Amino acid sequence: xxxxxxxxxxxxxxxxxxxxxxxxxxxxxxxxxxxxxxxxxxxxxxxxxxxxxxxxxxxxxxxxxxxxxxxxxxxxxxxxxxxxxxxxxxxxxxxxxxxxxxxxxxxxxxxxxxxxxxxxxxxxxxxxxxxxxxxxxxxxxxxxxxxxxxxxxxxxxxxxxxxxxxxxxxxxxxxxxxxxxxxxxxxxxxxxxxxxxxxxxxxxxxxxxxxxxxxxxxxxxxxxxxxxxxxxxxxxxxxxxxxxxxxxxxxxxxxxxxxxxxxxxxxxxxxxxx
Length: 274
Description:
This protein has about 270 residues and is α/β, with parallel strands linked by helices. About 40% of the residues lie in helices and about 15% in strands. It has helices at about 10-25, 35-40, 60-70, 80-85, 90-100, 145-150, 165-175, 190-195, 200-210, 225-230, 240-245, 255-274; strands spanning about 30, 55, 75-80, 105-110, 155-160, 180-185, 215-220, 220-225. Helix 1 crosses helix 7. The longest helix is centred in the last third of the chain and has 20 residues, at about 255-274.
């Protein structure tokens, strides 16, 4: 990535993309769907991404990758938001994974439709306020990782922009496999989540330290908790510390916090057992 992007200050999605491309190298074809990453490229011809880029339709990131992967030996990488992954693009993603397309799909998750006005997405957490859930979302975050793993692909992982070394290592590892690879990256957004822009990395780390986001990978069917999460499985910081740092959770009830904790504990327990 070069200078000239048009990202908001504190954008973790652009930071994550920088490290993804650093790991992938120059021999990469990047596929972008409509969303923050597409809007942040800058104005042609002075775009900030120094590899070939295909901008495709919202639902077509993975299906575009099928055709591209069939015609090149370069690294084929889809970089798409949560809306284009867990919602609008889920059907084409499922087909590409079932087909075992040789590509790397990366979902940068800011937990809402960030480029169109902060509407709720399938991965918006329970209790979070958005423009379409002003009283707080009443459904839990869609478990897109389990959906992906059900396709029995060679490699799947979670990551966070706040831990760039872990993200870089997982991208490198993913590219060592043939077939479909998927990495789900948490990318806190100051604008959508409601925190000061200089706190982006802090919020990302707090998500890990409170257990709101767990770093792990599923390598050839075997799940392993990544070091940053493994070291704190039995000593999380209070989840309230994470929630209170974001205005999207302002006014959340004690009952809803307990429900979030219950769901979080079940998810962690399931990962550990697997």
